[in-house]
Write a structure and sequence with these properties.
11-stranded mixed sheet; elongated; single chain; 9 helices
Length: about 260
């Protein structure tokens, strides 16, 4: 809040008007023309201690405060490329021969993502034996951006959406968007689609999950698959995707967003 401050000579007049009449007879016409040092000397000699204190306070109040340092975007955010606009953004685990946009040294992503968010990454492998990649960033509302990163270790793949707050220049949330995890006996596959599901102007997220496993039987092993779908809406006030109950047939929804199992 800005407090109105009287001009310097107005402060002198107001204060000195309440002091001994001898001090009031100071030559204000002369005082008005003096520089700061001369005013100090003039007031001290005249015994105008109150007026001197007033002038010191007035000058102190008009000194601008030091500027606080501006936050700097984390290194990971700075290497992400803006994503071209699209009605639907598909996020799946890459094929074996695909290449991400930017390879990330461990120091970059470990220094940019705090431990709370790292714990939310599904099946995060050891950082000493992990390839990390930066894919893209795109606005989700006026205050946030979605940033896609990925990790790979041998046959294991993971992609996660980081939520970036533009004003604080920090990652404030994370959503696991796509995963391939498992071994010869069974695998888990997930994928995501970003698009405006409810026509409110924000990107929403459809999240698909599938599991595949083998049951040993004679004469040949039996294969089993399960499929699930979840719809999430972007909530700008909470800066996160929140799940909603689907009011349409989930079977048709699963067929609309198929999972591509690796061969």
């Amino acid at each position: 809040m800005v407090v109105p401050v009287l001009s310097l000579n107005q402060n002198f007049t107001a204060i000195l008007g309440q002091i001994n009449s001898k001090n009031v007879n100071c030559c204000f016409s002369k005082l008005h023309k003096m520089n700061t040092y001369s005013k100090f000397t003039f007031l001290i000699r005249r015994g105008c201690g109150v007026a001197l204190l007033t002038m010191l306070i007035h000058q102190a109040c008009n000194v601008p405060p030091p500027e606080s340092p501006q936050p700097v975007p984390p290194a990971l955010y700075q290497v992400l490329s803006p994503l071209s606009s699209s009605d639907t953004i598909t996020i799946t685990t890459p094929s074996k021969n695909s290449e991400a946009i930017t390879a990330l040294p461990a120091t970059t992503w470990l220094s940019s993502i705090d431990s709370v968010l790292l714990d939310q990454i599904e099946f995060l492998p050891d950082s000493n034996d992990t390839e990390a990649y930066a894919y893209w960033k795109t606005p989700i509302d006026t205050a946030h951006e979605l940033c896609l990163i990925g990790f790979k270790q041998n046959w294991y793949h993971n992609k996660s959406l980081l939520i970036y707050h533009l004003e604080s220049k920090k990652f404030v949330g994370l959503f696991p968007a796509a995963t391939f995890y498992g071994g010869d006996g069974g695998q888990i596959l997930t994928a995501s689609w970003l698009y405006d599901f409810n026509s409110d102007g924000f990107l929403d997220l459809t999240y698909r999950t599938g599991e595949h496993w083998l049951k040993m039987a004679e004469p040949e092993p039996e294969e089993f698959y399960t499929d699930a779908v979840q719809q999430l809406l972007w909530n700008p006030a909470k800066a996160r995707f929140l799940p909603v109950k689907l009011t349409i047939d989930s079977t048709g929804f699963i067929e609309r967003f198929p999972l591509a199992w690796w061969e």
